[in-house]
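JOB MANIFEST
job_type = single_chain_structure
chain_count = 1
residues = 304
[input]
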Amino acid sequence: MPALAIQKVVIPIAGLGTRLLPTTKALPKEMLPVGRIPVIQHVVEELVNAGLTRLLFVTSRTKTIIENQFDNSTSLIRHLDASGKLDELGDFDYKKRGIEFFYSRQQADPGATAPGGTGEAILAGESFVGHEPFVVAYGDTIIRSPESPSFIERLISAHDEAKAAVTIGVRPVPEQQIPLYGIVRPAPGERSEGTFQIDAIIEKPTIAEAPSNMAVSARYVFAPGVFDRIRESATDDAEQGITGAIQLTLERGERVQAVALNPGEERHDIGNHESYYKSFIDFALDDPECGDIIRKYIQEKGSA
């Protein structure tokens, strides 16, 4: 695999996961199992398999279990080795793969009941990133790419080739889902497919207001100038997240572009119980050992 132009990733995971209560009262949604591994491990595997090596988790005080998931537990390794079961760890010995994990805690403002929005989470990674371009990958969203190059590799390549300020992952969504997402507007003369330049991003528009059906999809590449843009565009609206900073970047005349998921690529947003159930079923059906059994079970339940 050729070396990527970018090696650093910021992964925001400080959110409370309230739409998945009571499931997430004690267990972060990023640690919910999807198939054989938790959500966050699917995200890490996507990034690591693309060649990214330095990953920063922006956490909160309730998310220490995620640090444990990626800790190189020597006692577990010794136990598996003594039991002849070291292979069960599979490729998840990240230290052996040369992957470095870092952690930064996102602080809530005084009097606030929860950490701030996505912009604040990204700012928490400023000292880690330094003056390099970097990836942002939401820790509650899985993206599967059946073919090479993967979605994240295409995102990075497009960003590097265009020397863009911001490159946004997007996907087409059905009309009725448009009000749930940030929607991008292709620049004049641009087609909303492949890689295309945009001139606006509208947060959760009505169907009538929407400039396209291309929704922001939990993966970004930023030039380091985004940190100043976040500070300049800061508002009290945590829901606005990073959108204001991207809009300010556009107003300054810098290049902002989008890269669309290819047909066959999947986005799994573990945001509520319905999406979680569907994602688990999809991954269970693809399980090499149990997939056929689960498929037969579902067919039997459907015909009962």
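[summary]
The mean pLDDT is 89.
The radius of gyration is 20 Å.
exit_status = 0
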